[in-house]
Design goal:
8% strand, 250 residues, Rossmann fold, alpha/beta
Length: 250
């Protein structure tokens, strides 16, 4: 069930049998000349919607803006400051836990979110610690879909070293599978982008003028996206099932 398409009585009934929810989280940032700006939000959303077909779970709204200041040199990119994203995650969690949700699973599509979301979890848990509360804290998990073992094996098989670290053919393929009408046919030069460290927006644009880092998304395809989605769903389903078994007695 998708939260955005449900009425509140349906959510109230859902909470009688389950207190878990999946929140896709990503970013709105450039993904090279042929990658969609919404890639990092599109991918975890597609995976979450596929999970909805397999298990009874509530899918929350996608948090589509993330910590992506280093992409702001490219038109169309939108970013939160770390402090803003931390506050957003905290408000989302506190909204849900106040209604009875105990297990909140953030399915992430953007590496730049990891440090801030993890810090938000620590901030949330610290509130209970400093208050001396003995009530069970919320169970929170950040899962990076692109690091699952099935996804990694398939990416190695399909792309090898051409996967790179940003605007990867894996994520581009998955976003194309979700939105085949948005596929971009663009020549890439060089085919394999250079590698390097990420700093501020101006430095990023100087080092990686077309936005890619170490990748060749020219290898991406809709068919690859179908296979990557299947692998990601397998990884995520396995991880989510383990997560909801954590601290279930309250």
């Amino acid at each position: 069930m998708r939260l955005q398409l449900a009425a509140w009585p349906e959510v109230e009934n859902y909470l009688k049998t389950s207190s878990s929810i999946i929140i896709p989280i990503g970013s709105t940032e450039q993904h090279g000349p042929n990658g969609l700006i919404g890639t990092d939000a599109i991918c975890p959303t597609a995976i979450a919607y596929e999970l909805e077909e397999k298990i009874e779970v509530l899918i929350g709204p996608t948090l589509a803006v993330g910590m992506a200041q280093h992409h702001l040199g490219f038109p169309g990119s939108i970013a939160f400051r770390p402090s803003t994203l931390l506050a957003v995650v905290r408000d989302v969690v506190e909204s849900l836990t106040g209604q009875g949700f105990t297990h909140i699973y953030f399915l992430n599509g953007h590496g730049g979110n990891v440090a801030t979301v993890t810090a938000a979890f620590s901030e949330i848990w610290s509130i209970s610690s400093f208050a001396g509360s003995e009530a069970p804290p919320p169970c929170l998990r950040l899962r990076n879909w692109y690091l699952g073992p099935r996804v990694n094996r398939l990416s190695d098989e399909l792309y090898g070293d051409a996967e790179g670290s940003h605007a990867t053919p894996s994520e581009v393929s998955l976003s194309w599978y979700a939105y085949p009408e948005a596929v971009k046919d663009v020549a890439l030069s060089p085919e394999l982008a250079p590698k390097g460290a990420i700093r501020d927006a101006a430095d990023y644009r100087r080092q990686f003028p077309d936005g890619r880092i170490g990748s060749n998304p020219g290898l991406a395809s809709i068919e690859h996206g179908r296979r990557i989605l299947e692998a990601a769903v397998g990884d995520t389903l396995e991880d989510f099932n383990l997560f909801i078994q954590t601290n279930t007695e309250r």
